[in-house]
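Handout, section B. The chain below has 433 residues.
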Amino acid sequence: MKSKTQPALFQNFSIKTIRFLFFALVLASCKSTFTTNALDPSLFDYLERGNEQFNGLLVVNPINQDTLIGHNHRKYFIPASNVKIFTFYAGIKLQKARIPTLKYHLSDSTLFVQPTGDPTFLNPNFGDSTAFNFLKNYSKIALITNNYVGDKFMPGWAWEDYPYYFSPEITAFPIHRNVVQVYKNDSLLVSPSFFESKFSISDSLPIRKQHSNYFFVPNNLKDTLQIPFLTDSELMAKLLQDILDNEVVVSKKALSRNQVLHGMPTDSIYKQMLWESDNFTAEQLMLVNSSMLSDTLSFTKTRDFILENHLQGLKQQPRWVDGSGLSRYNLFTPESFVTVLNMLREDIREERLFHLFPAWNAEGTVQKPTTEENYFIYAKSGSMGNIYNLSGYLKTQQGKVLIFSLMSNNSRRKSSAIRTEMYRLLQTIHLSY
């Protein structure tokens, strides 16, 4: 009787790893060309705007591994917020159903708290009070914040973005998403109220001094402003003490043993990151991911673990420098995004996947989650100056689900014009397959 064991080449690989390597091998064999099933050639004028912008596209049928369209799909692009697809994938691989909101140990009536980087603590975007209600029960808290290894800002972030809501500092224990929220009624309404005395009325810019927590709002302020505050361990302890009305001190003592307090469902966090393109949530999520590997919070630790253990087969290894895509140092290929999107499709049932990924049309990300049948694109966009990218899943009229990555760099055109052309191209693919 012949042995039914696997060939020696595959004995040390799981079935999922073999599938990944096969998918990568198929993509690697694809030529950079159009295989369009008689699509209107004029649609591809957009892709070949060589003098106006640099475009790349890969469309794959994951069922039979057929490459339908390939153009510059092995070239590197600045991905902007498409990076959040990799951050999402890291979370899927490392997180459980509920986020580890903090680690703790009670010793001699003092609760020692070691943060996990959880972005949800008193974050108005989430409304979760699990950690707050837990900490409220202890009269003395020792906060350990020296377990974060990294800078407050990631490499390649624009320094002048420091006072804007989309660029809060990265910390081990973020509070109120590390921003102050202010609204002007008869008086200034500031949250957290700890910062009330730090505000002044002024029409001059910037809205915060660069190296201190002094804030300025215009006299005619009509909308709510969210302004990042400057963080340090002592300030976070004071802020937490003010919120809890309990004693909070900073400690450098490492926990010899700990328990884990779990907070809100991770799917709610992924959805906030993907639908709202929440940079803060993305960066902090990479720290939470690393807390599943050790007590050290580190973007680099998470990135290296994912690349070395789950994405070692990528044909074009990315330059991956942050979790949000704010950095122009990031470099990814359309082929890498399609590969990871295919792996997500294998790991997550379709109903859940299309619930977490944003619906998209020519106007951009649909503002509210929907299950309406007229949406056929479920994808993450990524944009910044001169850049617009879109990667995700495309439902065809014949009921197929295709995976695509459509990337556009180096354009001086308006994003709205690029979106319109992208939608027209994807709509034609939707009708043709």
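Note. The two ends are 46 Å apart (CA to CA). Compare this with the example in section A.
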